Amino acid sequence: MATFTPRNVFPALNSLPRSYFLGHHKAGLDKMKTMLSHIDLVIECRDYRIPLSSRNPLFEENLAGRERLIVYTKQDLGSWGHSRDKNRERLIQEFQRPSSVLFSDYKDKASVRKVLEFARAHAAAANSLTGSRMMIVGMPNVGKSSMLNALRGVGVHKGKVAHTGAQPGVTRKVGTTVKIIEGEGSGEGVYLMDTPGVFIPYVPNAESMLKLALCGSVKDTIIAPTTLADYLLYYLNIYDPSTYVEYSPPTNDVVQLLDLVAKKTGRLQKGGTSDLEASALWLIQRWRNGHLGRFLLDEVTQATLEAERRANESAGVSLNQGRKMMKELRKQKSMRKHLKTQ
Questions:
Q1: Each residue of 236-259: pLDDT tens digit?
Q2: For 75, which DSSP code?
Q3: Would you list the DSSP string of 254-298?
Q4: Cis omega before residue 98 (within 30°)?
Q5: Angle 25-29-34 (CA atoms, 0-180°, nearest 5)?
Q6: DSSP state, 235?
Q7: How high is the pLDDT of residue 169?
Q8: What percentage of the chain's residues is helix, strand, coil (to nearest 5)?
Q9: For residue 23, with 0-12 CB atoms within 10 Å meaning exposed, 13-18 middle and 19 or more buried, which class applies?
Q10: Which H or E run includes 6?
């Protein structure tokens, strides 16, 4: 039997959409800016599986002037808690200085308590009789509302107040503040404000867009599910091809994999043909829920972090720049379509 060799590079897809910056994203960001004078701490959530790609520079640009705690959510989906994971987390903490960094899983009360302890210490240092107001922000579907619910449940033992869902866009407006820590003495306690996820105006790297889409930061209709499934297969093969062995032998052919998944799970169309799109969505959701291994899509090393730092210093895409870039991309796409019809 021939030895299986995974692909060492994923083909470039420069025609992919490069933005998911919607009207309620801008409205939410504008509202956050008006509320900033009442906020003591900004808690920014990023996805543990894409610690670099899920950073949104708009938050640093528009919410400057407030202390920031960065929480990498969904740790359970990317870490086994091994020394390699711990070393990677240490690199990220050093990279994000002077901002404080925590890694969390909203289902793990111990990690939720660490966030609460940070918030409590920050509020105590402020020593305000009117309590402390904090704001939770992040890209779409990185787990902000789930974290808020967990902080409220562990902190004041009360039920969910923020709606959550598998697709982005569940939270569309800046919400009211909810208490997450009871006050001591005459203090009012700590309150946290939920906000809508805000996407980057323009994603300059097509592969970063694939990573964000695979992790659920854009709706599954924006990029073809079979394309996302192929990107997932690329990473599964690098990580461990045996993760999908119950559906298919190791393969680089996504159509072969999806065909076998469809037959195995009964996702068939009329006439018994395989529903490849439904199978792709099912496979993606299996990975998102942690059933196909735990690994990162972003490579985190000293070298990649230094490259990220240089890119951040030389880049910086404003809202207007993002709109211009998207307009130019649409113009080029329209011209290509027109040429094909000639």
A1: 999 999 999 999 999 999 999 999
A2: G
A3: HHHHHHHHHHHHT-B-GGG-B-HHHHHHHHHHHHHTTSS----SS
A4: yes
A5: 150
A6: H
A7: 47
A8: 45, 10, 40
A9: exposed
A10: none
Q: What three-state secondary structure class fits 63?
A: coil
User: Can you give the pLDDT at residue 336?
Assistant: 54
**Owner of token pair 């997450």:** 180
| pLDDT tens per residue across span 99-109 | 999 999 999 99
Structure tokens at 218: 């854009």
Percent of the chain with pLDDT over 90: 70
Q: Which residues have C-beta within 8 Å of that of residue 201, sequence separation ≥ 6?
A: 19, 21, 58, 317, 318, 319, 321, 322, 323, 325, 326
- CA 246, chain centre distance (Å): 28
Q: Nearest 5°: phi and psi at 136?
A: -105, 125
Per-residue model confidence (pLDDT) at position 105: 96
**If DSSP codes are grouped into helix, strand and coil, which group holds residue 135?**
strand
- 132 is written with which tokens? 């402390």
* Cβ-based burial of 151 (10 A; exposed 0-12, middle 13-18, buried ≥19): buried
pTM (predicted TM-score): 0.88
- DSSP assignment letter at 72: E
Here the tokens at position 297 are 């899509």
3-state secondary structure 214-228: HCCCCCCCCCCHHHH
Give the other-Cβ count within 10 Å of 21's Cβ: 19
Q: b/e per residue, 200-221, with b = 16+ CB within 10 A?
A: bbbbeeebbbbbbbbbbbbebe
Say if residues 232 and 172 touch (Cβ distance below 8 Å).
no
Question: Alpha-carbon distance 142 to 45, whole Å?
Answer: 6
Determine contact, residues 20/218, Cβ cutoff 8 Å: yes
Beta strand 132-138 with 100-103 is unpaired
- Residue 52 pLDDT > 80, yes or no? yes
Q: How far apart are CA 146 and CA 143, in angstroms?
A: 5
Cis preceding-peptide flag for 201 (omega within 30 of 0)? no
